[in-house]
Amino acid sequence: MSDGIITLVGNVASDVRTIKSERGTAITSFRFAHTPRRIDRQTGRWGDGPTSFYGVTCWRSLAEHCRDCLRKGDPIVLFGRLRIRDWRTEDGRPGRDAEIDAISVGHDLVRGTSSFVRARKEQVDVVDEQELAAGLRMELLVQEQTQVGDEPPDNDGEVGHRSQAPAGPTRRSADRAA
User: Fold this and answer.
1) What per-residue confidence (pLDDT) applies to 79?
2) d(Cα 48, Cα 85) in Å, to the nearest integer?
3) What is the distance between the alpha carbons of residues 151 and 113, in angstroms, rounded to a whole number?
4) What one-character DSSP code corresponds to residue 42?
């Protein structure tokens, strides 16, 4: 297994799923697609390279913010720890997964606009991230293995789906009015 810090630009490639750990920590996961742009030296034209897919895991407040803000297809900039995991099937065939433990995620403003709402500061418990990551991966693996056919996963244990932006005046507009 190897890991390094990377920054990638691409798209959210799946629905965004959020669960709560046994300790109450929010954990959000989604698939991410990255397609590099390359120049064809023979024609001098730009084209798409091969698309790579990554599993992304977000923790705590980042998990909650991703749950609230990201949708399948959204263009994002992703900064995190890349982890390559080798595995074998029951019949011995090898496989490899690329996973990213997100440090920061944001919309790609080259391809659209976004509106920022500052989060309230909250007390965050310090928890061993590697222990949580291992637990989440095991939970997701069990969910995927028990899922039958194309049925959507059971929503038990999920925090819920994304909420809309808060209604009413923002803190800045309330401050201006005062």
Assistant:
1) 97
2) 26
3) 34
4) T
d(Cα 155, Cα 176) in Å, to the nearest integer? Answer: 42
Question: Of 137, 163, 114, 119, which Cα lies nearest the Cα of 1?
Answer: 137
> Looking at residue 103, what is its pLDDT?
96
pLDDT for 143: 64
> What's the confidence (pLDDT) of residue 118?
87
- The continuous run of DSSP H or E covering 140 comes out as helix 129-146
Domains and CATH numbers, the chain: 2-177 (2.40.50.140)
Q: Is 9 exposed, middle or buried (0-12, 13-18, 19+ CB in 10 A)?
A: middle
- Taking the C-alpha atoms of residue 97 and residue 115, their distance in angstroms, rounded to an integer, is 33
pTM: 0.63
- Would you state the structure tokens that stand for residue 148, as one six-digit string? 């039958």
